[in-house]
Amino acid sequence: MAFIFPPEAHIAVPVAGSDDSIAVRRVYCVGRNYAAHAREMGFDPDREPPFFFCKPDNAVVPVRYGETLELAYPAQTLNYHYEAELVAVIGKSGSDIAVENALDYVWGYAVGLDMTRRDLQMKQREMGRPWELGKAFDRSAPIGPIHRVSEVGHFENGGLWLTVNGETKQKSDVSQLIWSVPETVSYLSKFFRLQPGDLIYTGTPEGVGPVVAGETMVVGVEGLGELKVKVVE
After folding, report:
1. Less crowded by CB within 10 Å, the N or C end of the chain?
2. Alpha carbon of 140 to those of 73, 170, 175, 180: distances in Å?
3. How far apart are CA 194 and CA 215, in angstroms?
4. pLDDT, tens digit, for every residue of 173-206?
5. pTM over 0.90
6. DSSP character for 122?
């Protein structure tokens, strides 16, 4: 079979401590999954089941340790926001997964950023429209190397932080997730068959805010290292 247009190569995220990589399949993001962040966005977290939005696989930008990703300020926004996240990486196929079995489907974890054109997201939300303009744009999902569960275990707790030019903006703990990783995997699997290479951005804590060209973000998760991103013109 010949393709009229050559297909894009898979986005491949490196595996920490090896020459291996994982091809990204789908990117799922959990909305408002830390109580304090839900409140800062104007919602009551106690009344809401988990909800999800997606980014395309080619929104993912792998960043190796020791590198600084130069991320261009995106078009059509005046309010470009960071959101620091723990990312769970699915390693085997499954649907309707029971909570008690959900962690068996998680192959590894990484540090991630859900970059957001907040003004566009808010405008779409006010009109009751999907969030793609605010969330699913090019290079909106930087991610660090993936760590195997066999090496780092699972994350019931662990610090999560983000700084901008050395100033702490987000600081929390993954124990503060409203919906834990196994609960999130189980719930999501009721609507989609999860497959190897699926990434789940598990949500961001309070403290989200804008960045501009010239500023450098450092985001980290305890046990997973740090991801460094500089915004450029």
Report:
1. N
2. 10, 18, 25, 24
3. 36
4. 999 999 999 999 999 999 999 999 999 999 999 9
5. yes
6. H
Strands of 73-208, DSSP E: 80-82, 84-90, 106-113, 116-117, 141-143, 147-148, 159-164, 167-173, 199-201
Radius of gyration of the chain (CA): 17
CA distance 50 to 30: 7
Question: Residue written as tokens 């859900």?
Answer: 114
Residue with tokens 């247009």: 5
- The pLDDT > 90 percentage for the chain reads 91
Amino acid type, 66: G
User: Do residues 110 and 144 touch, judged by C-beta distance below 8 A?
Assistant: yes
* Closest residue by Cα to residue 30 from 55, 56, 61: 55
Q: Which two tokens stand for residue 188?
A: 């999501």
Exposure of 191 by Cβ count < 10 A (0-12 exposed, 13-18 middle, 19+ buried)?
exposed
Nearest Cα residue to 103 out of 118, 88, 114: 88
Q: In the predicted model, what is the mean pLDDT of the chain?
A: 95
Query: Token pair of 127, please?
Result: 């009109």
Residue 209's pLDDT band, with cuts at 50, 70 and 90, is: very high
Check whether 45 has a pLDDT greater than 90. no
DSSP 25: -
| Distance from chain centroid for Cα 162 | 13
User: pLDDT above 70 covers what percent of the chain?
Assistant: 100
- 56 pLDDT more than 90: yes
Both tokens of 17, joined, read 């401590």
